Each structure stands twice: as structure tokens, then as C-alpha cells.
Amino acid sequence: MFNLQNYIGGELRAARSGEYLHNYEPATGAVYSRIPASGPADINDAVEAARAAFPGWAGMAARDRGAHMLRVAELVRQNLDRLAEAESRDNGKPVWLAREVDIPRASENFRFFGTAAEHFSSEAHQMADGSINYTLRRPVGIVGCISPWNLPLYLFTWKIAPALATGNCVVAKPSEITPTTAFLFSELCREAGLPPGVLNIVHGDGAGAGSAIVSHPEIKAISFTGGTATGKHIASTAAPMFKKLSLELGGKNATMVFADCDFERTVKETVRASFANQGEICLCGSRILVEESIYERYRDAFVAEVQKLTVGDPKEPTSRQGALVSEAHMQKVLDYIALAREEGGTILTGGKRVYPGGRCENGWFVAPTVIEGLGPRCRTNQEEIFGPVVTLQSFKNDDEAVANANSTQYGLAFSMWTESVHRAHGLARRLDCGIVWINTWLQRDLRTPFGGMKNSGVGREGGWEAMRFFTEAQNVCVGA
Ligand code: NAD
């Protein structure tokens, strides 16, 4: 048992209250560390530290800010194994996945935005009489970054890096369910010599620490990733305070499989798109829509492939699926499987909790689950489950596929599998979602706009979009 600490003004310290929350290991169901239960007093301390650091950080040459960030990126890379093991222990995901995806990406986020700092530029508009307008991009000031538990360090750094690159000082809160890599990251920031107060990491839950960030009058922008209901709550506090808001919320993504797809590859890749990270990625496809003429063939091949996914100890390289993040989340997923049965669905594989035995006897594991026989309007096909559960539906033609894909309140990321580029190109712009993948999934270029339409969010992250979000545009007009 060990205690994590807040990182405020360059120092590591406990919450002012001296209180702690339990942190669990999903693979065993046991408590293994404690995190500071921070509240408004700790957020005030973090804001004070950020205020003191702001003039120096904002006034620093972009190149020097970038150099600080590159040092952090390098230390994350050097600590790959330690961070991957911590991420796996906290979240339940397999260590190999954290090593291949989460931690390299966290390092890459800091490298990418560290170099972007130097290349960021703004526009100029010349008028007919020779007058010129130029746009200044000033840092917003002190900004808040709040992140979820599914890709802990990956999404935490995805927000913090562009905020720092543009000269802001940050008060950040990781999910209380997966706090450990954020704590290890704060130690690495100290080692990298990041100036005190530039980044402050405050631990705690949403009601205690999160809402204190959102309602603090000196925090001028909030970048949030998490559930749609939480996003709505945050917006109701932040919008009347006229804060800038970037909200990356839930999804209910469609995977569209056409008869002319590259069949073997599609089966393999759509299994990954369904169950990577136990289905706990906002971009996972949870509704698979299959063209009628290949429905049975695809279904049988898909189920056979899913049955090969070994569920087990996240430490084992042979485990393709680890544990779900919490007991409450596992119960939510099992409740949705029960609902699917009530709604008339047939469970083709999975549908139950798994007990891998040994040290994982009491862990929170669920078998990858495939369901058929449900129409687009039922709750199972409308609500976000965010676990290892997918449904299969068939469609007759492109119009029906598009209508079904667009039929939920969400619009985050859809994938299409077809060898007809012409068809895919025509369909992409009819889909109401922020990201369309054609014959690929989760292929990320950090320069591209990232985010969702409808109830999947407001604003976009990534590349210049993120850099612009964290700046205030000021137009200066010089008369002729
Ligand atoms: P969540 O909304 O419960 O929590 C997210 C973060 O918000 C946590 O740090 C939490 O402590 C904090 N929080 C909770 N209540 C708060 C409040 N009132 N004020 C301020 N902060 C508060 O989400 P979660 O369960 O951690 O994550 C799962 C959700 O995140 C899913 O819906 C998933 O789709 C979504 N998600 C979206 C994206 C995306 O890019 N669109 C990426 C990953 C996850």
C-alpha cells in the first residue's frame, strides 16, 4: 500500500484535508494504493502556483518551452516499462497493450506539441487600402484539463501538451480510478526541470476536485474528456462563466461492413476495432452493420475469431483481454448484456463474467460478447456500453446503412470496410460523425482534427485545432 501525492508548484504533497481515496487493481479486485482526496482548497493552491508561473512560461521563447516538453517526452520514453506496468495495474489492460500503445503515445503527445510550439503561426489579412490585420494568438492563461480512465496517461498528456505548448499554465486532474501514471508523470516533470507551477496535477474525484476546477473563476478554459452526462454537467457550470470549453464525450460507433470488403482482413481488423482495450475505447465500434448478402458468413467468421481472444491476467503476454476498470463498470456491462437478452437479443458468444483463477480469482473480467437479433432502436443499440460487447445487424443497401449508423444521439468515429473507394468516399460525407475510417481503425495522425458531432462533444482536439483552442485570438488592425 502506498500513497500518491499531488504535484503543486513543483512540490509533491498530500491533499490539505489529509484524506485519501482507495485505488484498486482491477485484475485482483484489491486496494493497492491511496490517492489524495483533493478539494477546492487544493485547487486554489494549484491556481496560485499557476498564476505565479504564468508570466515566465508565457513569455518564454516557444523554442525553450518546446525544449522543456521534449525533455519530458524523452523521460516518458525512458520509463516505458515502469509506466506500462503501472498503467496495466491501474486500469486492467494488458501490459503489452500499454507498452505498445498508451505510453509511447503519451511520449509522442509531448514530442508532437513540443515541436508544434515552434511552428505555430497566425494569419494576416490585407485590405484594399493597404491596411493590414494580423492575428495574435495569446495563451488563455490558466486552463483546466480533466481526463477519463480508459487511456489514462495517453489522454491526460493529449490535453496538457497543447495547453503548455501555447504558453498556458495548467491545473490537471486524472481520473480517480486510474491515477498512478499521472503521479509518476509528475515525478518525471520534476526530473525534467519543468518550471514549478507550469503544470499542477491534483488528484481526487469529480465532485471534490473536478468540479472545483470547473467552477474556479481564474481557470479560463476547460478541456474535458469523459462521459456525456458529466460533460453536460460541466457545461452547465462553465458556460455561464463564459469559459472556453472543449468536450470529448461518449460514443456508439458504427462499423460498416460491405459485401465487397477484403473479407479476411476485415474480420481480423473489426475484431480489434470491437474489443481493443476490452472495448473501453471511445472509438471502438460497438454496432457492426453488415451487408445482407454476407451477413451469415461474416457473423460466423467474426464469432470464431472473437472466441480466440484469451481473457486473463493483464501481466501475461498471452492475454488479449484484461480486466474491466472497476467493479461498478463490470456490473454496468453485465446489466447491459442482461438488457440485450430482455430485448430479445441472442448471445452468440460470451455474455458472462470470467474468473481466470490464481491471483485474478476476484478480478473484474467479462468475456468478449457478440449479440444479434436486435433492431437499431432498442436501448442496447442506442446507449453507450463502453465494454467488450458488440451487436450485429444487417442492411440491404447504402441508404439503410447510413440511416442506421446515424440513428443514435452520438457521432464520434465510424469505420467502413469496402474495396470500393468511390462508394466509401460518397458515403463518408453522409455520416454524422467527427471521424471516418475507411479500411482502417484507430489509425491516428496527431495533426488531424479529433472529436465528435452531436452528443459526442463540442470542439476538436489535435494539431492546430488544439493549439487554437488554448489561445485567444486578438485581431490587430494597422491602418494604411
Ligand atoms: P466520467 O465522465 O465519469 O469521468 C471523466 C473525468 O471527469 C474523471 O476525471 C472524473 O473524476 C471527472 N468528473 C466527474 N464528475 C465531474 C464533475 N462534476 N466535474 C468535473 N469533473 C468531473 O467518465 P469516465 O467514466 O472516466 O470515462 C468514460 C467515458 O469517457 C465514456 O463515456 C467514454 O466514451 C468517454 N471518452 C470519450 C473520449 C473522446 O475522445 N470522445 C475518449 C475517452 C473516453
Distance between the termini: 69 Å
Into which percent range does the helicity of residues fall? Answer: 25-40%
* Global morphology: globular
Indicate the low-confidence ranges by residue numbers: none
Count of strand segments: 25
Strand order of the largest sheet: 15-18-19-14-13-21-22
DSSP strand content: 15-25%
Instruction: Supply Rg.
Output: 23 Å
Oligomer description: single chain
Q: What is the CATH T-level topology of the largest domain?
A: Aldehyde Dehydrogenase, Chain A, domain 1
CATH hierarchy: architecture of the largest domain? 3-Layer(aba) Sandwich
The biggest sheet, with number of strands, parallel, antiparallel or mixed sense and barrel status, is: 7 strands, mixed
Which hetero ligands occur in this complex? nicotinamide-adenine-dinucleotide
Q: Enumerate how many helices there are, as a single number.
A: 15
The total number of structural domains is 2
Fourth-level CATH superfamily of the largest domain? Aldehyde Dehydrogenase, Chain A, domain 1
Average predicted confidence as pLDDT: 98
Topology:
Blueprint: E1 2-3, E2 6-8, E3 11-13, E4 20-25, E5 30-36, H1 40-59, H2 62-78, H3 80-91, H4 95-119, E6 124-126, E7 132-139, E8 142-146, H5 152-165, E9 169-173, H6 180-192, E10 199-201, H7 206-215, E11 219-225, H8 228-238, E12 244-248, E13 253-257, H9 263-275, E14 285-291, H10 295-306, H11 327-342, E15 346-349, E16 353-354, E17 365-366, E18 369-372, H12 379-382, E19 389-395, H13 398-405, E20 410-411, E21 413-417, H14 421-428, E22 435-438, E23 453-454, E24 457-458, H15 463-469, E25 471-478
Parallel strand pairs: 1-5, 8-9, 8-11, 9-10, 11-12, 13-14, 13-21, 14-19, 18-19, 21-22
Antiparallel strand pairs: 2-3, 4-5, 6-7, 7-25, 12-24, 15-18, 16-17, 20-23
The protein binds nicotinamide-adenine-dinucleotide.
Residues 146-150, 155, 173, 175-176, 205-206, 210-211, 214, 225-227, 230, 233-234, 248-251, 282, 384, 386, 412, 452, 456-457 line the site of nicotinamide-adenine-dinucleotide (NAD).
